[in-house]
From TrEMBL, chain A:
Upper lineage: Eukaryota, Viridiplantae, Streptophyta, Embryophyta, Tracheophyta
Subunit structure: Heterodimer.
A GO cellular component annotation in the UniProt record: SUMO activating enzyme complex
Family as reported in the entry's similarity comment: Belongs to the ubiquitin-activating E1 family.
Protein name per Swiss-Prot or TrEMBL: SUMO-activating enzyme subunit
Species, as recorded: Daucus carota subsp. sativus
Gene Ontology BP annotations: protein sumoylation
GO terms assigned for molecular function: ATP binding; metal ion binding; SUMO activating enzyme activity; transferase activity
Superkingdom to which the source organism belongs: Eukaryota
Subcellular location per the Swiss-Prot or TrEMBL entry: Nucleus
From TrEMBL, chain B:
Native organism: Daucus carota subsp. sativus
Entry-linked PANTHER family: SUMO-ACTIVATING ENZYME SUBUNIT 1, UBIQUITIN-ACTIVATING ENZYME E1
Domain THIF-type NAD/FAD binding fold: 14-307
Official protein name in the record: Ubiquitin-like 1-activating enzyme E1A
Pathway: Protein modification; protein sumoylation
Superkingdom per UniProt: Eukaryota
Family, similarity comment: Belongs to the ubiquitin-activating E1 family.
GO CC annotation terms, alphabetical: cytoplasm; SUMO activating enzyme complex
Description of how the protein assembles with itself and partners: Heterodimer of SAE1A or SAE1B and SAE2. The complex binds SUMO proteins via SAE2.
The keyword Ligase is assigned to this record: yes
Amino acid sequence: MAAATQHPFSAIKGKKVLMVGAGGIGCELLKTLALSGFQDIHIIDMDTIEVSNLNRQFLFRQTHVGQSKAKVARDAVLRFRPQISITPYHANVKDPEFNVDFFKQFHVVLNGLDNLDARRHVNRLCLAADVPLVESGTTGFLGQVTVHVKGKTECYECQPKPAPKTYPVCTITSTPSKFVHCIVWAKDLLFSKLFGDKNQENDLNVRSGDASSSSGHSEDVFVRKPEEDIDQYGRRVYDHVFGYNIEMALSNEETWRNRNRPRPIYVRDVLSAALSQQNGDMENTKISDDPLSVSAMVSLGLKNPQEVWSLVENSRIFLEALKLFFSKREQEVGNLSFDKDDQLAVEIVTAAANIRASSFGIPLHSLFEAKGIAGNIVHAVATTNAIIAGLIVIEAIKVLRNDTSSYRMTYCLEHPSRKMLLMPVEPFEPSKNCYVCSETPLLLEINTQRSKLRDVVEKIVKAKLGMSLPLVMHGAALLYEVGDDLDEIMVAIYSANLDKVLSELPSPITGGTILTVEDFQQELSCNINIKHREEFDEEKEPDGMILSGWTQALTTENNKNSSAGNGTSTSSQAVPIETVVDDELEILSGETATLHSGKKRKISDSSKASNTSFEEKSKRKADELELDSPIVVLEGSMEKDNGKKKRLQ
Amino acid sequence: MKGEELTEQETALYDRQIRVWGVDAQRRLSKSHILVSGLRGTAIEFCKNIVLAGVGSVALNDDRPVTEEALTANFLIPSDGERVVGKSVAEICSESLKDFNPMVRVSVEKGDISCQSVDFFDKFDVVVVCCYSLAAKRMVNEKCRKLSKHVAFYTVDCRDSCGEIFVDLRNHAYTKKKLDETMECQIHYPSFEESISVPWSSLPKRLSKLYFAMRVIERFEDVENRRHGETTIADLADVLKLRTELCQANSVNESQVPDSLLERLIAGPSEFPPVCAIIGGILGQEVIKAISGKGDPIKNFFFFDAADGKGVIEDILSNP
């Protein structure tokens, strides 16, 4: 008889569980935990409820929109299980109150998160507190559940994690070949230039080969002249970015030797004079107090967001949306950042991306599709979340029984593989090279005479190592630290250090130096060996430094399963994955997962799968198909620019 | 389906799932009518999933009064005593389900649906029966098959930490995407009776043992005239005896239906909520596939066992 199914209540009784995330997986998980007899559940989620959650986060109703997910979820579950204890926290799991001591009170931690950053943070706290972690993620019909127990199985960070997809600057500014490139250009460059902080660096006018000539003339173009007619301004911007800039780019013959030449587009070519004059009928636009409801589609009478607009329609939307921003939302201009829930922002980005796509002969897309790509929206359905939540509870019960030999990581597939839709695989042992759960030092190649401490802290310690409250030491000398309890003098010293070149720090960092970086909250400490290197390739090594010894997956743009776009420079992929090859399993984790090929695992590695026929078959298969029968494990990644609102679900 | 657009409300609510299955599938879902009978934990999970997905209507059938037993894996029954007094499980669950999605009509069908006329089933596109006896499964399936309209028929059963789904889509036409191409496909399903009548000796050697174990207990409850799940550990000796008889009659080795598996299926609690969630989730996905005509549906059994963690599809009688 299988231990996993014997008297689940005896294993559950008196056990305290922490759930991180009350979103898609979280709602299902909280319900299944309560029905299964869990009595003491704590749940952390910083998010509030949105309309687009309601199709799957079934504990929430229309009337709850705007309220705390953790609190509403608790109340909803108590209606059918009033006798149990559920403690909600409407807070960020990275808040200092959730320290190692807080984690130590739990017997198991269950993650239903949507971003890599928070997942890594929870992994570290679980390792530090020595509490088992059950990790999960879903995308569309795909999902996975993994178990991480310190010293027994690999930790969440033992396996490479894909980095957010980034594109070379010149692909975005000069040579787009996919629609996603146009979206990145429209969202990160044009939108920021028009409505964002004017002081921010922006590559909008960088043209391949003549970056130097970009500033003078073009800087002024985006500023509306005093008294300038708004229609006039819109046409000027349009002609500049879709006409003049393309014209300029075309002048660099070298770029187009092996590429299709783009077509400059001017307002006069697309819209007749009359049409561009009498654009939208703003008088008929419904007057609303909510700036997020202002819409160029409405004023132009376009209704269907699924429809692909023509170049003319996109041009009219672009001009109309620009006009609406300057007439209805003028006070926001200058400090806007793109938000997928901002209708007008989505409209102008869609239109701009489509006009640019027309120039470059790239197929146009609907607003619905463009919104998905620009907003890193991950498709999600209730069924997958329900299945994954069931699997989490099954693993949690095994963990509470300490039934180590039964732990499994389970993949939920869209297409069966070897007859299986739910495929269990034995967990891996901890990796000896993991900088998080082992003590392997890292190696940083960097130009110590040019790079500043700030570069190391931002690009390495925070972005790559995922530390949120880092401390940097060289021997006994503290170079940098963050915290509430620092006195002003120290704050001043540290901030001065940030702007110093490494070799000029009070305790100089040069080739051969060993740096220690720590995060007290995560109780993570690792050593970084510094190696001085003079030159870096700007395109291939844009950070100007290379960290090795940590497991970052390579991202490949030509992934055959993601032809429609691999996400954006800041983001994750947003197209349904329906083209999974039979013998290959694609697993994504996290409601905002990125499609990237991570480390490949062979089914034969799973060894001792309990069913012999399965084992034999898979061994044979693995022999036959050594190379083309991998399980590609793909895991979540987070949107790095979404700092204003890092979301837990 | 051309010329019809989803309303703004639908587009906003269903945004994330339209990104999975498309607008066409969403439109078809909103026009489908589903009957669910036997509101055990698995059926409840399934109802939640399809109401959230936005089907047109769901009719619930379960006349049991609300008792402790009915509460075990059911999150649709609130614990405030007054609301449930004098009402059936279906009535209480329909009230809760309506709340999940105001765009779905939820109603109650009273009585024993296995005794209904063939015409009764004509108003549904999908019929799901949960924890039904062998005879009742057979009767409902046959009635659905007599209709000229294709009614998708499913049975679901949970015993202890195991679950089973049976699917009968008769002749099902659908599309699927392979690489970047859309393929038109058509498959034929055997009925429930045809499937379970296949001699065991002609089945593949590596068939899930759960298939046989489920048939033995189903047959035992049929012979003994018991309701689903009324078999207990006290019946073990009789169940094992029936197993031996069936194995002999089918010329298969008894090891195909291990003692330990049968023991587990009848000894444990009748429902294990995580398994209900998993089976209810898979069933929800299958019904969405069947209605939308998109993607390979399961043919024709699905098994999940929490003990080994596998969720397996078995094709019994692949050439009816």
